[in-house]
Amino acid sequence: MDRIEARISQLRKELDEHNYNYYVLNAPTISDRDFDCMMAELQQLEEQYPQYDDPNSPTRRVGSDINKAFTQVAHRYPMLSLGNTYTREEVAAFYTRVQSALQEPFTIIGELKYDGTSISLTYEDGVLTQAVTRGDGVKGDDVTENVKTIRTIPLRLRSNDYPRTFEIRGEILMPWAVFEKLNAEREREEEPLFANPRNAASGTLKLQNSSVVASRQLDAYLYYLLGEELPSDDHFDNLETARRWGFKISDAMKRCDTLDDIYAFIDYWDVNRKNLPVATDGIVFKVASLRQQKALGFTAKSPRWAIAYKFQAEQAVTRLNSVSYQVGRTGAITPVANLDPVQLSGTIVKRASLHNDDIIQSLDLHIGDMVFVEKGGEIIPKITGVDMDARILIGEKVRFITHCPECGTPLVRYEGEAAWYCPNDESCPPQIKGRIEHFISRKAMNIDGLGTETVDLFYRLGLIRDIADLYTLQESDIASLDRLGDKSARNIVEAVAASREVPFERVLFALGIRFVGETVAKKLAYAFRSIDRLAEATIEELTAVDEIGTRIANSVHDYFAHPDTTTLIEKLRTAGVQMEMKVEQLADRTDRLQGATIVISGTFTQHSRDEYKALIEQHGGKNTGSVSAKTTYLLAGDNMGPAKLEKATKLGVKIISEEEFLQMIAE
Ligand code: IVH
Q: How many whole angstroms separate alpha carbon 601 and alpha carbon 641?
């Protein structure tokens, strides 16, 4: 082995070690800075000496943006599910069945049942070679590249007492904290929310762009080893050994020698699971000895040596009294069930979300039905079913309304969307009030002192009919109103006046154009720089902006095509609201990359990918995801996808290094 190869292998070994200390043990032994330094050195060396390439190098944790369709792989051992139980009696029955089948002493291992998406990992000679989803149990999707981005999954094992080949199965999870952050982001961007961390984890695992997967911070617990030459006959010992190999094994695992031990385990986790950072939906009990497992065998669907005990789904039964319909600021109609108040996991529930028409139809709801209400991972309780046995006098079938409950306009349903909309955006009151509330909100114009109730009052009194009317409000109009007085009147007028300084990108967000969230507004503001240029933009010009697709482009185009928009914009302009980017905001922007379309691929040493993206835009260029005939440059980093490289070479696209790129934008 030459000097370079030795250094590369040493760096890989040390980085694997630090990765394990940081992510699995939660106990880093070096600073982030030193870690980044070592990673940069390794990236540099791997780029210089591609002959030492290794698909399991720690540099692969960042993922790649090559879109990859998944191939289906047959499982060597089928991925079965577990029999479910819901009561202690059913668990006791399982215990007795095992007892009479075995006729000898046995131990049960209690584990948590993690609520994510299951995965089967194959290791050969100590390196991860394949990761496959459960699929239909017989074959699943090969998601190896995505799984490699999960930092708690070892790419290479830590000691050398592992079998030459084995499989290990477990659950991929999105921690609650990551889930909540992701959903908050999606809400801001008006993207559909994930219902719970399980859906978020499985959705993420199926993304075709592994660099996005890397950013989602998934975690994984492993709970089941399979192979011909496992270290021990005892499941618990095997998992403890797997822990030494570098896998994340739950600390909750416990040996239970009696039925009472089992009950104690249930009692403990029924309460304490609420403090875990990840979602669990029950407990799994497994016979510890592999020899005994084999003797017990399987039924067609599940093992006889294991059982799941499901936590009480937080469910209640109550009566459906009526359904009401709320109109949002975009005109979307949300159906809400009004219920007899019922206690559900600590709170009293009176209303539940019915989501959309399709869900109402599939539940076959009738007024007066006794319905099941659940609080799952979701924040708002939902109706999961109807107690058909309790249906004596059948009430009226719930049918989605056909006209807006607020303005009477016939509702419409757009292609590909589950929601019904009230199309009367000009004069439907909740839509107008909703738009005003959005306009004054903190992330938009940040007009303090005005809340929902005040907006409602002003609207009812005819003081404001649209967002521009805010700027003509007089202190004298307000001061005479109930509950307001001189001081609040002055505050409101001052806050409105101060909003004239809010930068253009936030004004654009504040307008409440459908699908234009904070990030999109910023992109459009930098790309077009003024409302007039944006209003004139064609669909082609709009979609030419990075990350603006046809859905957003059409929405922006339709918004400005509306005659009322022109009037509104003129009113706002006259009121002194910012309608273009200020010179200071554009000061560090140049035209050096004007007209250039640049694709970024691989990993970089001097700046992150996001920084390169920002640099391209700052200098007037356009960043796109895939190489085409329109691509001007391919900005190539380390570990570049071979498909991209091949395509670029074939199309004659100029390939530039990060140094060359930085040279191009330097003065
Ligand atoms: S053992 C042959 N252990 O629950 C049995 N499964 O309904 C293999 N799960 O598909 C599974 N936590 O996705 C096992 N500690 C645990 C588990 C667990 C969650 C999931 C797994 C499985 C499903 C069975």
A: 7
Question: What 8-state DSSP symbol labels residue 149?
Answer: T
Closest by Cα among 131, 174, 388, 365 to 277:
174
Burial 492-525 (b: 16+ CB within 10 A, else e): bbebbeebeebebbbbbbbbbbbbbbbebbbbbb
Centroid of ligand 1 to alpha carbon of 129 (angstroms):
22
385 lines ligand 1 (CB under 6 A): no
E-assigned strand segments in 533-664:
597-601, 622-624, 633-636, 654-656
Amino acid at 382: K
Q: Using alpha carbons, list the distances in angstroms from residue 524 to 192, 337, 445.
A: 21, 39, 17
Q: Name the CATH code of domain 429-501 (choices 3.90.230.10, 1.10.150.20, 2.40.50.140, 3.30.1360.40).
A: 1.10.150.20
- The stretches in the chain having pLDDT less than 50 are none
E strand or H helix at 32, and its extent?
helix 32-48
104, two tokens: 């000898």
Catalytic residues: 113
Name the token pair of 185. Answer: 């982001």
Number of CB atoms found within 10 A of residue 4's CB: 13
Question: What topology does CATH give the domain 84-310?
Answer: D-amino Acid Aminotransferase; Chain A, domain 1 (3.30.470)
Topology of the domain comprising 314-390: OB fold (Dihydrolipoamide Acetyltransferase, E2P) (2.40.50)
Q: How far is the CA of 71 from the centre of ligand 1 (A)?
A: 24
pLDDT (0 to 100) of residue 345: 63
pLDDT at residue 183, as a whole number:
83
* Cα–Cα nearest to 412, from 404, 424, 403, 420: 420
Question: Residue 612's closest CA among 571, 550, 664?
Answer: 664
Q: Whose CA is nearest to atom 21 of ligand 1?
A: 118
Backbone angles phi and psi of 492, in degrees to 5: -65, -50
Closest CA to 50 of 559, 642, 629: 642
pLDDT at 499: 95
Q: Do residues 249 and 304 lie in contact, with contact meaning Cβ atoms separated by under 8 Å?
A: no
> Does residue 523 have its Cβ closer than 6 Å to ligand 1?
no
Task: Please report the pLDDT score of residue 582 as a whole number.
Answer: 82
pLDDT value, residue 379: 59
Task: Assess whether the C-beta atom of 171 lies below 6 angstroms from ligand 1.
Answer: yes
Architecture of domain 3-62: Orthogonal Bundle (1.10)
Domain regions of the chain by residue span = 3-62, 84-310, 314-390, 429-501, 504-586, 597-665
Query: How far apart are the CA of 380 and the centre of ligand 1, in A?
Result: 27
Distance CA 194, CA 196 (A): 6
Is residue 325 a contact partner of residue 336, using CB atoms and an 8 Å limit? yes
What pLDDT, on the 0 to 100 scale, is given for residue 24?
82
CA nearest to 534, candidates 512, 507, 560, 569: 560
pLDDT of residue 627: 86
Say which CATH topology domain 504-586 has: DNA polymerase; domain 1 (1.10.150)
DSSP for residue 409: P
Mutate which of 114, 222, 311 for ligand 1? The one with the most ligand atoms within 8 Å of its CB, which is 114
Q: Is 118 in the pocket of ligand 1 (CB under 6 A)?
A: yes
Does this chain's domain 429-501 share its CATH topology with 504-586? yes
